[in-house]
Design brief:
This protein is of the alpha+beta class. It has a domain of about 90 residues: Fusion Protein Consisting Of Minor Coat Protein, Glycine Rich Linker, Tola, And A His Tag, Chain: A, Domain 2. It is about 25% helix and about 15% strand. The chain is built from 5 helices and 5 strands, in the order ααβααββαββ. The chain starts with 14 loop residues before the first helix and ends with a strand. The mean pLDDT is about 75.
């Protein structure tokens, strides 16, 4: 036989209602607890620690005084003695020609001048008077053009340009120590040296009115027609 309960005895049917009422009660209690105010409560501050004030004595900074230098010693004043012009000459005074009115004869002392002897073998680059070809620059160009023989092999390969030859004009005008300082090809360089060594004597360079050895440079131009 199945047991049946009445609606009043059925507790499970009212669970949701009782749960909602419980939430409302809890919220009400919390609201009252937060809003509760205490206006009559006072805080005793008699035992509180007061602010401490620290005082310290400032020690002044002292700088040691530098001792003053001693005052300068008083300079000794030299005694000035005024001599009367009418007093006689002291002993040992030498009488010159100005005192007796005689003419003074000057004595000439020849100054000693150290003569600089030039080195006979020294070669200079610049001299007071530079060496020159007989007849000047035009005569030099004419001499080179007359005596130069263009090498056949250089003509075939089309070699041309300027060969720079350096030499020394000796004290008697002789050409020595000829060398090529800038060449083109061995055949043209050799021909340039040959023509330079054929040149006649030059007028030598002069330094302190004496002939000196001077280094000189001449360009020899090779140009195909």
């Amino acid at each position: 036989m199945e047991v049946k309960k009445t609606k009043r005895a059925d507790i499970e049917s009212h669970r949701g209602t009782w749960l909602l009422m419980g939430f409302i009660a809890v919220l009400t209690f919390m609201f009252v607890a937060f809003e509760w105010a205490q206006y009559d409560k006072q805080i005793d501050t008699s035992m509180a620690v007061k602010d401490l004030v620290y005082t310290a004595d400032l020690i002044p900074i002292t700088v040691p005084e530098k001792p003053l230098p001693p005052p300068p010693a008083a300079q000794r004043m030299e005694e000035i003695v005024i001599v009367d012009d009418t007093s006689p000459e002291p002993e040992g005074t030498v009488m010159t020609s100005e005192n007796v009115g005689e003419a003074v004869t000057p004595i000439y002392i020849k100054p000693e001048v150290e003569e600089i002897i030039p080195d006979e073998t020294e070669i200079v680059v610049f001299a007071e008077v530079m060496p020159s070809f007989p007849g000047g620059g035009k005569a030099l160009n004419a001499f080179l053009a007359k005596h130069i023989k263009y090498p056949t092999l250089s003509q075939e390969i089309g070699s041309q340009g300027r060969v720079i030859v350096q030499f020394v004009v000796d004290k008697d005008g002789t050409i020595t120590n000829a060398e090529v300082v800038k060449g083109i090809d061995p055949h043209l360089d050799k021909e340039a040296l040959r023509v330079i060594n054929l040149m006649p004597k030059w007028s030598p360079g002069m330094q302190n009115r004496k002939p000196v050895r001077v280094k000189y440079t001449v360009p020899v131009i090779f140009k195909l027609q």
